[in-house]
Amino acid sequence: MPKHALPELGVILSLLRQALGWNQADLGRAAGTKQINEYERGRKTLTRQRLEYLIAFMGLPPEAIDAALDFQAEIRAMASPPRGAADPLSAAERRVEVVSARFARLMHGYARSALTMMTVEGEALRAREQAEFLWSLMKKRPPAARRKLVERGLRFRSWALCERVARESIRAAPNHPLEALELAELALFIADRFAGDAKWRLALQGYALAHVSNGRRVCNDLPGAEEAFARAKKLWEQGASANPGLLNAAWLPWIEAALRREQRRFSEAKKRIDEALALDQEGELKGKILLSKSAIFQILGDPEGSAVALAEAAPLIDPEREPRNAFGLRFNFLVDLCFLDRFAEAKAKLAEVRELAERLGEELDLTRVVWVEGKIAAGLGQTAEALAAFEQSRKVFYRRKLTWDYAVVSLELALILLAQGRTGETRRLAEEMLQIFRVQKVEREALAALQVFCDAARQETATVELTRRVIKFLYRAQHDPELRFEPETGAEAR
Question: Would you say residue 485 lies in a domain?
Fold first, then answer.
């Protein structure tokens, strides 16, 4: 007998095979052997290495062998020597035997559940590894060639590749909306051709269609996004019972929350965010969901709610693996702290944000850090530093034609000028901003708010309070064009 051969491994192979519902012929075909029956009957030696090879075709990791061996040992430990007729069991002993038998059945059920769980997880891991490899083959090809691969190759029609392509769509969405939509449509193309269970295919199609909805949203096609999401939700619900838990159910409410936010249905968006957080049991998406929650609070003019969400998300976003998300999170947290007048706390976190911006190396990121440095300096009474920072960031925003950013930083500058009694400079600044807003054809309500400030500056009646109100309004209005500025009441409404 070979050194690593164990007689009971044939029994273990039989146990694992039957627990998973495989017959000998199917396993033999998958593994390319006709020896399964010989192994299980002990007529041919089965080594540990060979057993690991065989069970891999059923989606099981090597650890399943140890789990089955432990279970077998437990059963043997429960066995007792047979008794003769002259040695009847006492009532107590019979009770022990009954309990032992019941315990054995429970152990068997537990073993089956554990093996089933290992099977699902093992298959998922293997499928995702394969999907990563397949995506590496696809990503450098043009869209038409990617679809041909799916049409011609069965291995390209897997749920895991659909999931992988959908996630690539999410990654592309912030900066490359057209690519994000193309990738989402490729994910749907894969889902439509999924060769597995028909009901499971429905859930997969719903999952992919949700990403199509997201792709349309970032391409500013809100009606198309709404239509796609309605179909996605219906398909997902129809196939929900067949989903073996491989796809994270939190994706759909998270994507819907982003859509409702763009539609300015903020109450619904918040509900979907909370639903997504509840469904994300493994915490896979929690950091990103909390970023979305923060964005909704910012639009609603609630910097405190935004700061709480960002503080909770911070430890979930790894700066090494996700530097872009880490920068956005920490930068927005500084802005919230400034709106809450917590300038000293913001200053203590400034160096980390600058370091992330320098690592990313983008001019706009660095410029926005300079702007927030100016806000912090102004809040701490460091006027000269604030003026220099505002002037520097203002020039870049003007050159890059970022109208909203330019207006906000100009108003921050106006606050300092007003405090110093420099009303003439404030008036010229206001007229300059108003002219730029008119040329850029900014939304009516934003233009009206700036007009109120400009009129007050001309009459030298502009106040620090009015300027701060206009700043907060513009900061929100760029994300919510229907927000109205109410100059008389000091309130904002829709």
Answer: yes
